[in-house]
Amino acid sequence: MDDSRIRLLFIVSSLVFGGAEKHAVTLANTLDCRRYRLSLAYLKDDATLLPQIDRTNLDGGVFCCHVARKVDSAAVQTLADHVRDERIDAIVCVNTYPLLYATLAARRARMPVKLIEVFHTTELGGVDDQLQMLFYRPFIRLSDQLVYVCKNQRQYWRRRLLRARRDCVIHNGVDISHFDLRQTECERQQVRQRFGFGKADYLIGLCAAMRPEKAHGDLLQALARLRNAGVQAKCLLIGDGPERGRIEAQISALNLREHVRITGFESDVRPTIGACDVMTIVSHHVETFSIATLEAMAMGKPMVMSRIGGANEQIEHGKNGYLFAKGDIAALTGALTRLQHRPHAESMGQLARDTIERQFSLAVMVDAYDRLFSGMVNAYQVERGNIRVA
After folding, report:
1. Distances from the Cα of 205 to the Cαs of 219, 223, 238, 260, 270, in angstroms?
2. Residue 280: Cβ-neighbour burial (10 angstroms; 0-12, 13-18, 19+)
3. Fewest 10 Å CB contacts: which of 120, 188, 326, 354?
């Protein structure tokens, strides 16, 4: 393979099943390995997404740093050795914790490495998150490029004086050939039957890790209101996580045990998304430019989504879905009520698919990152008098 390839190292906190992590894996899997020598490091031992990595595309290696404390010197050394041995040109950091390690590793390796921060966070959850952000601000300021994943996010953080040497917006994208409309009606009904739902049920889905910020309880309250109003609504919660016990308790408290099912972790969410009539995201914070939303829209599902982060860049209210103020159960219930009529939901779902094809495909996203990475590295090589052709 050509030694003039650009050498990129991706660093993620872990390979836990989450939007930012999936984004990094998808990008690393899709960049052209004829132009890039790619490697990926994950700091913590959780490797749920490891089977989804295409190691043939990452010929620089995939490895765990086995971080045991906030700042683990052995992990920094592992990264520094890799940066030096692989002659890494740029490190792509997925959120702020990897940026800390990338900065320390680059300094220890004494290599002129470009630091690129891909930032997936907008509103912070609580005091602890806000204090952590104060700690990371200097590291972001020293990074060579800050990538926001939506326009609203950049506006939000610029107002709060977050700065890097440069910044840009690259919207998340999804593979429209992978997330498509090929599920047959028979296959759809088979998935419904697996979870005890019938063909006539109005099935509302939520695909998200079971964490506090995802606010699953809001959807459960809306479901209870729908059923009290006589709507034959059911709910499929796709995913798992630390809040599962609390969510199951809420289901029982609202007398919804016969009407809600939890799938647990699903390595392929397409069959379960396809079985639903409508998909929701009801998060209160953290959500910036939801990949789960893009996946559902690509599969022709109308979205009902809390208006946070870049939601209004994805959803045109009343056209390809509905937006509501976070925590507004009445507005959420109203939007779901309007979508109970299947022809209306299917019409909106087709418009959702059209939106993804036009604006948020994987091809569009990867092309933008390719231009960013190659432009940064080649410009730096020219500055150093070592012109690289890639």
Report:
1. 9, 11, 7, 10, 12
2. buried
3. 354
Residue written as token pair 């132009």 = 35
Give the 3-state secondary structure of residue 200.
Answer: coil
Domains and CATH numbers, the chain: 6-173+362-383 (3.40.50.2000), 185-359 (3.40.50.2000)
Q: Rounded distance, CA 138 to CA 29, Å?
A: 31
CA distance 335 to 54: 40
Residue type, 360: F
Q: From CA 331, how far away is CA 222, in angstroms rounded?
A: 9
Cα 278 from chain centroid? 20
What are the backbone dihedrals phi and psi of residue 175, each rounded to the nearest 5 degrees, phi first?
Answer: -75, 105
Return d(Cα 78, Cα 168) in angstroms, integer: 30
Q: Of 374, 368, 373, which is closest to residue 389 (Cα–Cα)? A: 374
52 secondary structure, DSSP code: G
Contact partners, residue 198, CB within 8 Å, separation at least 6: 192
| DSSP helix/strand/coil, 293 | helix
**Helix axes of 362-383 and 19-30: crossing angle, nearest 10 degrees:** 70
Cα separation, 204 vs 278, whole angstroms: 5
Mean pLDDT by 10 residues, the chain (390 residues): 85 90 95 97 93 96 96 98 97 97 97 96 83 95 97 96 97 95 90 96 96 96 98 98 97 98 93 98 90 96 96 97 98 98 96 97 97 88 54
Q: How far apart are CA 161 and CA 163, in angstroms?
A: 6
Residue keyed to tokens 């006589």: 230
- In contact, 205 and 299? CB cutoff 8 Å: no
Q: In whole angstroms, what is the distance from residue 15 CA to residue 19 CA?
A: 10
Vertex 66 angle, CA 64 and 69, to 5°: 145
Model confidence, pTM: 0.88
Using the structure block, give the residue that is written with the tokens 């008098």. 385
The reported pLDDT for the residue numbered 390 is: 47
Q: Are 11 and 41 in contact (CB under 8 A)?
A: yes
